[in-house]
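job 3f2a | input accepted
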Amino acid sequence: MIGYVTLGTNRFDKAVQFYDALFGSIGASRVFENESFVAWSTRPDAPAVSVTKPFNKEAATVGNGVMVAIALDAPGTVDAFHAKALQLGGTDEGAPGQRGGGFYNSYFRDLDGNKLAAFCLTKE
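job 3f2a | predicted structure (124 res):
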């Protein structure tokens, strides 16, 4: 159902560097880009995450309660993805761990303060 999610940025070049490295760590690459928008995905026909300079030329702001969750294949992949985000300058919002109900999750914020999660389903 979801085609892509867009996150606003005030530091476009830095955001693109951050997500190139972060999404590259899970095999995702750029699937679309122009001078103010870049989207990454694991394949051209899969959902994507993108960053953009706001169309109205105003400052990008973080949505309160808004979060993008990245589905991964195993707890170790969640751990590595979370660690990579922090290594790239992201901030920790919740270390990787079992959250109950077979849900293994971690939380972080990107360079602009956008909140993301990395998760996988486990047998617990």
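job 3f2a | The chain has one domain: 4-52+66-121.
job 3f2a | closed
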